[in-house]
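Deadline looming. Please check this record:
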Amino acid sequence: MSTTELPASHAELMDGVYRRQRHIYDLTRKYYLLGRDRLISGLDVPQGGTVLELGCGTGRNIILAARRYPEARFFGLDISAEMLETAEAAIAREGLSGRVTLKRGDATNFDAGALFGVARFDRVFVSYSLSMIPGWEKTVSEALAALAPGGSLHVVDFGQQEGLPRWFRALLRGWLKKFHVTPRETLREVLESESRRTGASFHFRTLYRGYAWLGVIGAAK
């Protein structure tokens, strides 16, 4: 899907939300986007591997992952031009532009080969983006389709706060709604269903009493 074909309403919404927030996004989100670093440490990228992040935002995760796996190549996709501007500047400051390629696109419908010149990736990850993507289930399907044989999809996002007090859940949901974020109640079921459909392995963990959920789907070799 080309930039001109992006769903205008959602792209414009995300640009509007992050036009100013992108400058302080990483400073504020580190306190409540929990589990991101655990996801990165669990990527276990093979030597010379390729990694795609869907919903790469400010580039925070790609930068950390690129430092951790210095022999890998990284690719990032995001629907927001505003966020990509911030990400590209951050990646350039870190001297990673030669190993990280960013493109604007819709995570529910993209052609990795046309965008990046790479059709399949050893690792694909999605960090706190499914809760912001309309039709997020399609993102899971697209991510799995972009996996190389033996590759893996890693997802971390808000859980249902099942082990936390109700007042905390209500407070968190109210806060997230201001930023068009909706924790996906069926996230585990969708990941598990997609793993069965594709004959892949599936591992799932609840983090911080259900504050966050972490799922990994491993493609067959």
